[in-house]
User: Fold this.
Amino acid sequence: MSETFTTPKQVEANCKTRMEKALVDLAQSMTTVRTGRANASMLDNVRVDYYGTPTPVSQVGTISVPEAGMLTISPWDATVIGPIEKAIRSAELGLNPSNDGKLIRIPIPPLNEERRKELAKKLHGMAEDHRVALRNIRRDANDQVKKLMKDKLVSEDEEKRSLEEIQKMIDAFTKKVDEASKAKEKEIMEIR
Assistant:
């Protein structure tokens, strides 16, 4: 981002916007991590080979959650049932779909201890990636504020205040990442 800022306020606003986007991205990434209960977003990253094009499952049929331990997919085109099943099996979600010619049923097996730990580890990786992203955003913002100081567009006091403000921002966003991660981990480790 080679945007030119002329005030610390602009730098801080840009920094906050970018940090909010990182948090939204983390929330979206976490929906794909399995917990013990069925959730249609578990299939968000599954792509079906639909006439040669990798297509999200949600675009080839209706996904529903009839009960806590079951997902169903009602394909709009019956010829895509096989490819949907194949895509779900190869997505490494630990799911085993079956069909009756019209509807695909996906029982959600309870997670065993080993799988829970694997998922928690994956979750920690996601959270750490987003913490790193936040730190990179902070570094960029700090550099921009220091450049304003170097170009004599702000006083030392303004620079100091802005750097403190950016630090407060990253502390708050890092805390939100940690809270989201802990809540999701609790969901994963919960035995139903």
